[in-house]
Amino acid sequence: xKVVIDTHCLLASIPPKSTHYWLxxxxxxxxxxxxxxxxxxxxxxxxxxxxxSQSTADLVLNILSIAPNTIFAEPFYRWQLIVQxxxxxxxxxxxxxxxxxxxxxxxxxxxxxxxxxxxxxxxVSLEEFKEMIAV
Length: 135
Fold this sequence. Notes:
By secondary structure, the chain is of the alpha/beta class. The protein is 42% helix and 12% strand.
């Protein structure tokens, strides 16, 4: 299963005592493939360094970079489907370009995608994804 994961979901999954740490553990056991682009990696690094530290950002990005279940791709088209927060479009564009099974986010800006028939992007919350992979 190929997924694109919003930055806030990544940030929530980092601390071992977090209720969302299961996401990291599921990735570690190859329960899904995590899709990344250069633009997403840059945002991950920026936000991880802000919230935790640069060394944490470096560690997380290194793990993502060398994991066998990471997919690196670059979107070939900018759909501009999210108007409320155009910065979120990098996740949507990647999901479309790789044919992701799901875009995982708790951000309400992505709800607009549920009303768009084409291109179809399946958006699920972090909790819905947890149920899907039976953690």
